[in-house]
Amino acid sequence: MPALRYSFSQIEAFTTIVETGTIAKAAVLLGKDRTTIRDLLDYLEDALGYTLFVREGRKLLLTQQGQQLHRQAHLFMRQAQAFESYARGLPVAIEEELVLVYDPFVPLAFLQAVISEMAQKNIRFSAWSATRDQAEAALKNGLADIAICQAQHRTLGNEMEWQALGNVELNFYAAKSLFRDHPQPVTLLNLSLVPQLVMHHVNDEQVSRRLQISGKSLFVNDRAILQHQLESGVGWGFLPTHFQAQRWRNVQALDTEVGNQGLNITLVTLWNPGRNKQALAEAFIASLLEIWRSTYSSSRSFAAR
After folding, report:
1. Is the pLDDT of residue 300 over 70?
2. Whether the Cβ atoms of residue 98 and residue 125 lie closer than 8 Å to each other
3. Which of these, 98, 162, 142, lies nearest to 124 by C-alpha position?
4. Looking at per-residue confidence, does 153 or 131 come out higher?
5. Are 256 and 185 in contact (CB under 8 A)?
6. Taking the model in full, what pTM does it have?
7. How many C-beta atoms surround the C-beta of residue 85 within 10 A?
8. Is 93 a residue whose pLDDT tops 90?
9. pLDDT class for 157, splitting at 50, 70, 90?
């Protein structure tokens, strides 16, 4: 049996004639001339092999076959309208996507709260950890929309904007056995002679200078590996208190000659204001401060217990 050949325009003309009752009214509604509508109907009837209407005065009435076919044609047009609505909405839906690049010291509780917020708003959200240099490059190249990095107290030029997010408190951590035979509190000289575990790569110069004390540094950007190395006593770390490293196996906060008061870093939010997702990014940035206050403050309280 040969396949039935018809076009969307033929089905549209057929259903519109049914709704309006005449070819003339259907032509006006569809913005086409009557000859075109008449031809579309004729082509459809020729393909079907039977008539769809009978004329009664100026009106066209459905034949029995036309009545049955109209039910299916009506459903077809509804599906076509749904398809059109979905297709038109795709460019908007694609915009509802954000990519965040974050510093390894950003609190996990904060990131989890941000992810939950994006899920509730049906925004596709990607997040990956990187150095400050990598984050700025990703923003410039359009690979990321927003970055949360350590402040470097330098000008960014006209390409990017920034906003302070908050401070992360730091302390010294090591296996309980690592400095057992050293005088207490541990001196900076003693710290400099023992390998230091650093989560920021040496190429991130300004960050590394602030965080590196030992000349013997071991770089690691995975928190689970960092924990294993600390627990194994291969080195000590100058780490955020929200890591709660003192809860890791055989790990303690070190008593050092500089103490831990006032040891913190400032995190800032960076973004490129010229990107296409500016409105979405600005709404996201505006929500970050409240999420930070509600999550990081509680995580600090927990870490201090």
Report:
1. no
2. yes
3. 98
4. 131
5. yes
6. 0.64
7. 9
8. no
9. low
Are residues 29 and 20 in contact, defined by beta-carbon separation less than 8 angstroms? yes
- For residue range 1-35, what is the model confidence (pLDDT) as tens digits? 456 677 889 999 999 999 998 899 999 999 999 99
Burial class (CB in 10 A: 0-12, 13-18, 19+), 197: buried
Whether omega for the bond prior to residue 185 falls within 30 degrees of 0, making it cis, is yes
Pick left, alpha or beta for residue 51 (phi over 0 → left; psi -120 to 50 → alpha; otherwise beta).
beta
CA distance 22 to 168: 74
Torsion angle of C-alpha atoms 116, 117, 122, 126, degrees rounded to 10: -70
> What value does the mean pLDDT of the chain take?
86
Q: Which of 265, 266, 275, 264 is nearest to 161 (CA)?
A: 275
Question: What token pair was written down for 238?
Answer: 């100058």
**pLDDT recorded at residue 160:** 80
In angstroms, the CA 19 to CA 24 distance is 12
> What percentage of the chain carries pLDDT values higher than 70?
87
- Select from 129, 117, 289, 303 the least CA-distant residue to 220: 129
CA gap 174, 196 in Å, rounded:
9
Cβ–Cβ < 8 Å for 61, 54: yes
Token pair belonging to 239:
């780490």
Helix H, strand E, coil C: the string for the chain is: CCCCCCCHHHHHHHHHHHHHCCHHHHHHHHCCCHHHHHHHHHHHHHHHCCCCEEEECCEEEECHHHHHHHHHHHHHHHHHHHHHHHHHHHHHHHHCEEEEEECCCCCHHHHHHHHHHHHHCCCEEEEEECCHHHHHHHHHHCCCCEEEEECCCCCCCCCCEEEEEEEEEEEEEEECCCCCCCCCCECHHHHHCCCEEECCCCCCHHHHHHHCCCCCEEECCCHHHHHHHHHHCCCEEEEEHHHCHHHCCCEEECCECCCCCCCEEEEEEEECCCCCCHHHHHHHHHHHHHHHHHHHHHHHHHHCC
